[in-house]
Amino acid sequence: MTMKIEKEILITGFGGQGVVLAGNILGKAAAIYDGKHATLTQSYGPEARGGACSAQVMISDEEILFPCVEQPQVIVCMSQEGYTKNAAMLVNGGLLIWDSDLVKTGEHDPSWVTYHIPATRFAGELGNEMMANIVMLGFLSAVSDLVTVGALRDAVLSSVPPKTKEKNAGAFDRGREYGEAILKSRAMQERPD
Q1: Residue 51: what are its φ and ψ, rounded to 5°?
Q2: Residue-range domains of the chain with CATH
């Protein structure tokens, strides 16, 4: 009998950042391109733009019976409120990622694997801060194995307007390259002399 592998992912931010779109793209990558099962639930604050919002994504190799994230193994924070409200939910050994332009963190659980990326700044440098969510997905593809890189990139390109595909591909690649550079740097630091 094989163990069921189920991942719970929480993406938090504020309305207008494309948090729900990022969750949708991640689920699409898993379900359509990687052949897994995935669910997405979303929540919004009372305001459409600027209010708190989140996307809860579950990815599994088997049917998902309960679609709500209760013990996330991965939390991506794109707002301070999202971090403050949700970081403590992360499981022991979980993966915490935040946008260093928008989130200031305190002490972390030492068991967590933590990364940060200036996603909003990178998106701005590429011409549109609204692509910070895509930069973040590129970064996520480098530092996690939730879905394959090709699946996530294909899901991004099939989810954005045709006129913006090239810019979004650039945003995804920028995030991924930054993630790969961070991993390489960490590996060099951990290598014994």
Answers
A1: -85, 160
A2: 7-190 (3.40.920.10)
